Amino acid sequence: MRLPDAIVDCGKCCACCKSHEVIALMGADNPDLYEHKVKLPRSISDQLDVMQPDHQGFMLARGKDGACAYLKGGRCSIWPQRPYVCRTFSCIGFVRKMKAEANRVEIRRAMRDGVIDKDVWRAGVERGG
Ligand code: SF4
Ligand code: SF4
Fold first, then answer.
1. Total domain count, the chain
2. Is residue 58 part of a domain?
3. Is 63 a domain residue?
4. Whose atoms come closest to the Cα of 90: which ligand?
5. What is the pLDDT along the chain (129 residues), one digit of tens a residue?
């Protein structure tokens, strides 16, 4: 199955691969392709059961630095096989959505609390979000 790709000119940016966001494996993904995966913590799988019920109960593993286990030398080592979440995430769309739904104070608070990754936000703003 051909998976969709977000239209984002990432260049050398890999901010979202370094952020601590959960990369859950979704219904479009084949979990067998991903050696570096772990079971979703219960608290997250409970949330996804409601919001994205086609998740498969796994997320990509992260290294000690918090970056995705497949990020090697600043590049995705499995780019042609990266999972659905990676293919469809757009930092531009994320910034636009947040700006539409939250005010500046709320956004600043979310950054301070680590809910929004500052580097992902910056990447989205720089690209027009
Ligand atoms: S933060 Fe945006 S520009 Fe950077 S890698 Fe992710 S999608 Fe690409
Ligand atoms: S699989 Fe590749 S694109 Fe997805 S988070 Fe990991 S390094 Fe980034």
1. 1
2. yes
3. yes
4. 1
5. 555 566 788 989 999 999 988 999 999 999 999 999 999 999 999 999 999 999 999 999 999 999 999 999 999 999 999 999 999 999 999 999 999 999 999 999 999 998 999 999 999 999 999
Query: Which residue range(s) make up the domain with 44?
Result: 20-89
Task: Give residue 31 CA to ligand 2 midpoint distance, Å.
Answer: 14
Residue 2 in any domain: the answer is: no
- Whether 92 lines ligand 1, by a CB cut-off of 6 Å, is no
> Crossing angle, helix 104-112 and helix 91-101, to 10 degrees?
120
Question: For the packed helices 91-101 and 118-126, what is the interaxial angle rounded to 10 degrees?
Answer: 100
